[in-house]
Fold each of these.
Amino acid sequence: MIYLALNILFSSTFTLIIKWVHVRQREDIVTVGPINYLTAAGLILPWFLSQTASPEVNAALCGACMGAVYFIAFFFVIYAIKHVGAAATTVVSSLSLLLPIVVAAFLWEEVPNTAQSIGIACAVAALALIGVRRRPRTVKPIDAVQAKETADQSTPRSTWLIPVVLVAFFLLCGCSRLAQRTLQHVCEDGRAQMPTFLLAAFTTASIPSIVLLIYRFKHIRPAELGMGVAMGTANILQSHFILAALDSAEGYIVFPASSSGGLILTTLVATSLLSEKISRQTLIGICVAVAAMVLLHAK
């Protein structure tokens, strides 16, 4: 189970680094993101060159689609983490597997079983708890930072923009998961094609990343470079360790454990070390989401 634990650790690292950048308010996250994709593309290249299976065009096309979605989704995850927190954003990302489940039911006739159907209902309930924002009570702010946060949360614009961003982020994450699911249907051995898939994904995400860095023409600080490299490394390692975990355990054990463990770890670190506050409604949504992820992967 060491591979599963490492997958949980590195899958949470990506989100927590973005949260850390928001907390520090010293580095530019829009600079860190492109460096992350460039790093991931460079790290996946040796894995691709060492693979024994011949690269397939379908795997590359699926990966390219996911890479394009990755680049766009990054800007939504930045906003989501800033305004609803790392824990809630992780819930939305984890439950985005609803989209490939629904699509698979129509395209590949993979009808959900009873447990999965209950899981779908729980997932929708969790997303509603996370996405629907209650109007905050008017309280006297303690300091200038809290005053600004209270003002930001109470603006009419935030009442509709945050749910819209979360829905868009949910759909984008769902599309990336759909690309992964499609890989299993268009290739004889999807796992063997994973290096090709990932190289195409991160190479595709790297192209607009380079354009963005050149267009902004901003000096890259050492801390920004380090965080970008850390994020890219975490991206590749979590993919590697989930495959390693699947070699030693069944998917219906690995996937819910990975999703739930990543959500719990992200929540614990964000609340204990990164000063994130979670409302009672969001906490209930997290608990429902954990139950949903277990049910959605039930056989």
Note: Residues 135 and 154 are 7 Å apart (CA to CA).
Amino acid sequence: MHDFWLKSLDRREFLRNTAALSLSFSGVAAALSACSGSGGPVINDELIFARPNAPVTLPIDDDNPPLEDGLEAEVGATLKIYNWEEYLWPRIADEFAEKYDIALEISTFSDMDEALATLRSGADFDVFFHRTDVISKLVAEKLLQPLNHSYIPNFGANVWSVYHNPFYDLGARYGVPYTVYTTGIVWRADRVDEDIAALSNPYEIFWDERYKNRVHLLDDYRETISMALLKNGITDLNTDDEAALATVADDLASLATNVGGLDIDAYTDVPGGEAWIHQAWSGDAIASQYYFPKGEDPSVIRYWFPPDGRGAVANDCIGVVRRARNPALAHLFIDHLLDSDVATRNFGWNGYQPPQTRLAPSRLVADGYVPRELKNTITRRSSFNSGFMQLELSPEVDDRWHRVWNEFENRV
């Protein structure tokens, strides 16, 4: 946890309290169309990679069954959680620990490659926050155990119905959704001369030499390469086309000297002035308002995502680790996070929108969760109708993507 967390807590708490007074329970449209992707399922040995037009039911093996029904929560346990940095309000976790009289141990990672390496090393976490672009690998390597939904009633009761049967994991066997978000550009209107949203190709701002060293990108190979693809009008964010990846490699080579940092800290870098322009997830744009130095105006933050929705969209999931020592508690903790009140308060802290039916996207500005100048951070069903999702790549294609990324990373 960053040192400034306590400093920003009062602002977050104030927002949460004022928003809760007017929280709308009008609901949200349940149907979400599958987002764009190319081809059918990609099959490679034991890996079966879903595509929107080719849904996948991930296997449950005899030696890795779901948890039995009706088990009691483990007593006197230490629940081990493995999560992204700054992604879970500690108070939410502490409330669960107090309820079950247990200890909590929260470890964090900054990218999915790091997380996978840690899990493969034999780490015995209980709960893991993962992405849809690695789920088949996690299942094939038996790093996750299948979920028993009887311990997670809030999943069926509160979550957008499309996630009850998502194309990438039919039946939600190995993960339930935690957040939904888009990937775009955050900038400071008081430091950047032009309105990035008004540019004919906003992605090109990263190459603008006037902002040399004040441009930051996400330290995430899928996101940065996807940005370069979109900048070139290529919307298949799972491409295996060598010419497309060569174009990206050339573009990133010319960008490297302009980049001041690769990180996932837009929510602090932009308010702190380290970056004026940052590739960012929509949730970090919302969260950034809490991290401005005292006396500075957070209303200068802006966020761009293609207004027609044709950009990168995603959702993160929560699962139970195969080696979990406390699988019953792990399931119950997931259910805790999917409680409508808990999910809403967590959103008020971390800025990442949960796909909760009672948290109506149409009300998020009016209810105080999202500043009016950041209303385009709100993720709606329409984003998934026209957006593009990063899905799993075959090992061979993934290697090509990593080679492009490693060359760029070495130049920055």
Note: Confidence is low (pLDDT under 50) at residues 1-43.
Amino acid sequence: MSDALLARVRGLLDDAIGVYEGTEVGEHLRSQRARLDEPLRVAIAGRVKAGKSTLLNALVGEPLAPTDEGECTRIVTWYHDGLTYRVTIHPRAGEARPARFDRLDDAVAVDLGGLTPEEVQRLEVEWPSSSLREMTLIDTPGIGALSGAPSASTLEFLTPGEGRETDAEAVLYLMKHLHTTDVDFLSAFHDEEVSQATPVNAVAVLSRADEVGGGRLDSLESAATVAARYARDAKVRRLVQTVVPVAGLLAQTGVTLREAEYQALATLGRADAAEVDTLLLSADRFANADAHVGLTTMERQALLDRFGLFGVRLVVHLIREGTVTNADALAKELESRSGLPELRQVLLTQFAERRDLLKARSGIIAVESIACTHPRAGSEALLADVEQISAGAHELVELQLLASLRAGAVDGKPDDLEAMERLVGGDGASVHARLGLPPDADVDAIRAAASAELTRWQRRAESPMASREMADAARTLVRTCEAILAQQT
């Protein structure tokens, strides 16, 4: 279905380019047309020190984004796959230009060439990476900074304003706990109208999950419980698809682990357990206390910087009990426990599966915004086409229904609402996810499940006892089931 919608949006953009040929907005429409063929743009946002850059590095699989408080962390930075290694500065005034950069052990250090962060609109880092082929990752300055500047830069980039659409098609929002600022930001990014963001393209990440339980070995289990509670919260459900707990530092270290680090940790694992456990009572004690554990204070500080106190505690425990015996095994264990595989699965099922739909919607937003703010001959016809595509594309209708369900606008029994949300794509856009079937379910099982759902929602749509909202939602689900059955013939 998305292929047909994407084709209609291509045609819409072609018509809009013809209407605005030779104008500045015409060039913008051309870039939107090209954007349909680019990887999905996923922005990473959150409060200051939420761990955005650390998570980005973990997703890419190598340290590219600086995690300190340098000037480049105050600039919106795009990371995308390329044939070569290159950094481009896009200043607020003047033409884009190449930037000098150094590849350090922990980040790509960029020379701004005399510009201040406030004078730079964005940095573009081109880096050959298989992880960036499907998604362009965009690191944004932390919101809620005391100076206010990073917040303004991030809000300018992510929140839709009058006459423009956001450059991000999806958002990962990081939070250490649910704060009023987090809800306010997500509310600004979110709009229940299909022309703007909906819960389908926003995922919350409970970052620094290892800190939730005070750094205890069961901290990740505690974080999973907290994330599940947030995911059920009515305020959160209307703003994001789900909430995923991730220990970002653990994830980054797992995918970039060095042999020397494993050997240093193995030394701790072999040292006197009582003395090591005393060191691990606090970060200050571990880094600075005198102890005969086979490592200097400088070496311990380096481990603390890379793993965090929880990470060191966890690795020492894993080495002592024999769960890991070499660097490769440790790297896999850290990545597995960090929550990164679960987040990647969410990105695959919630974002990648809807790539064409999200891109088509961005194109619709662009045409609608320009036609409204720059009226000229042909604009009315463009707006009519926008309305026709938005109303006629079933995928967009499903997004509207999902937003309504998440907002609590449809009354019904909890089991019914859960089934409706799943069928409309709330757990993933694949047929198996919609029907609640295992991935290996065969065609006969799919047909049986879809037929049962079709009968169920036809009855609801025709029931005189159903509210108007329920009847309208049921009719949408009937069409969904019919489309699924048509695909199986």
Note: The first helix runs from residue 2 to 19.
